[in-house]
Amino acid sequence: MSYYGLTFSLGNLSGNFFVNYELIIFVEIPGSILGIYMMDKIGRRVTISGSMLLSGIACLSAGLLPTDLGIHRIVLSLLGKLFISCCFSGIYSYTSELFPTAARGAAIGLCSTFGRIGGIMAPIIADLGRNIDPTMPFIIFATFSIVVAIFCFTLPETNNLPLPSNIQEAKALTTNWNLFYNFKTSKTTVNC
Q1: Which of 179, 180, 5, 155 is nearest to 80 (CA)?
Q2: Is residue 118 classed exposed, middle or buried when 0-12, 13-18 and 19+ CB atoms within 10 A define those classes?
């Protein structure tokens, strides 16, 4: 929702709409590259959760700024889009690594379907900014991003682990509670 919603909320920002649009599209490129790089270096869970949390903080800051600080709101919106692009670039890879082979296709389809509900809601929430209050979409996107980031921290780390081939192996994935990816256990295999 935040990924699409920040693009749809451009009309709520001050300045030239077309320049803002070019900036918010341009910032996706380094965000996607950074996301792919960080997923390999520090792990999937921390990259996905951390970038979603940082995006939520940036959106919340943009929503709480006074309207006369237009350039600051634009910069914070760009930071929010950068971090949510970082998250979005790896979410499908991470999702596929969580489910066993027998259910992987159906699970990714189900997760993608629920993700599209957020995509459907994004323009509606962005329109609230034009009709009610320009800060409202940023606060809503921030709230959802922060809550989902907290939930994502409870998922297991899957970097450099074999893909689970059955339900028992998927259940055997344990959560690595270290804040950052543990490089010493990167070659650990799942035994069932």
Answers
A1: 5
A2: middle
In a domain, 55, yes or no: yes
* Per-residue pLDDT tens digits for 56-84: 999 999 989 887 788 898 999 999 999 99
Contact assessment for residue 17 and residue 156, using Cβ atoms and an 8 Å cutoff: no
CATH number at residue 73: 1.20.1250.20
For 91-157, the DSSP string reads HHHHHHHHS-GGGHHHHHHHHHHHHHHHHHHHHHHHHHHHHT-TTHHHHHHHHHHHHHHHHHTTSPP
Instruction: Give the number of other Cβ atoms within 10 Å of residue 36's Cβ.
Output: 15
- At residue 65, φ and ψ (nearest 5 deg) are -70, 145
The pTM assigned to this predicted structure is 0.85
Residue 140 near residue 157 (C-beta atoms within 8 A) = no
Q: Residue 130's closest CA among 17, 28, 2?
A: 17
Domain enclosing residue 116, as ranges? 2-179
Distance, in Å, from the CA atom of 95 to the CA atom of 98, rounded to the nearest integer, reads 5
- Provide the domain count of the chain: 1
